[in-house]
């Protein structure tokens, strides 16, 4: 009877990689995030109040789209397979080496795309939606600004989350294609990995 009861077993997990934490990257990320967040918040709050309502809504949608796009790139880099890019590099295909560098630096690339740019876009879209709400409240005789604010902020959240959910599916399915095209864009702008 006692033999039927399984013994407690110790399970050991090894870390996925032996890389040490890059403290300088963490510090750079904090500084970049602080700077970009401040600049974009000032720009979005200041500019949104001076624009036509339709242009303000368009800018809000572009901010949301930017967050979704960078989320797709971050997820694609994380799930991409490095082997096809080595094959492409051996055949001297342009931008293959840049794609290899992206995949090798997937922790930093996904951190920058998903966390830095994605979170900044989330914060800025929140302040931009507040500016759109203020604009609508000024234009309409409706006295209940709470309902307008609720509808717009809920819509922004729904579009952002829904877009990112759909984007993650696309990123996983077409990860190598997305990484290669991201490498092409990086090469066009002359951004090089240090």
Unreliable spans are none
CA radius of gyration is 22 Å
Shape: globular
Order of helices and strands: HHHHHHH
Largest sheet: none
The residue-averaged pLDDT reads 83
Count of helices?
7
Strand portion? under 5%
End-to-end CA span = 63 Å
Helix fraction bin: over 70%
Number of strand elements? 0
Topology:
Elements: H1 23-48, H2 53-79, H3 83-90, H4 96-104, H5 106-139, H6 145-173, H7 175-189
Model description:
The protein has 194 residues and is mainly alpha-helical. The protein contains seven helices and no strands. The longest helix has 34 residues, at 106-139. The radius of gyration is 22 Å and the shape is globular. The N and C termini lie far apart (63 Å). The relative contact order is 0.15. The mean pLDDT is 83.
List keywords for this structure.
194 residues, mainly alpha
Give the gist of this structure:
The protein is mostly helical and 194 residues long. It has helices at 23-48, 53-79, 83-90, 96-104, 106-139, 145-173, 175-189.
């Amino acid at each position: 009877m006692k033999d039927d009861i399984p013994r407690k077993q110790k399970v050991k997990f090894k870390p996925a990689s032996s890389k040490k934490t890059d403290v300088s990257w963490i510090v750079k990320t904090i500084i970049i995030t602080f700077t970009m967040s401040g600049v974009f918040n000032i720009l979005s709050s200041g500019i949104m109040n001076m624009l036509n309502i339709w242009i303000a809504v368009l800018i809000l949608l572009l901010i949301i789209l930017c967050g979704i796009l960078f989320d797709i790139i971050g997820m694609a880099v994380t799930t991409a397979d490095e082997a096809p890019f080595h094959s492409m590099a051996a055949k001297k295909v342009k931008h293959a080496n840049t794609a290899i560098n992206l995949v090798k630096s997937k922790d930093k690339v996904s951190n920058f795309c998903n966390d830095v740019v994605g979170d900044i876009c989330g914060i800025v879209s929140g302040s931009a939606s507040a500016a759109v709400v203020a604009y609508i409240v000024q234009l309409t005789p409706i006295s209940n600004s709470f309902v307008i604010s609720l509808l717009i902020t809920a819509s922004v959240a729904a579009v952002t989350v829904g877009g990112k959910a759909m984007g993650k599916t696309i990123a996983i399915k077409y990860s190598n294609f997305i990484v290669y095209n991201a490498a092409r864009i990086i090469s066009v702008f002359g951004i090089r990995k240090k």
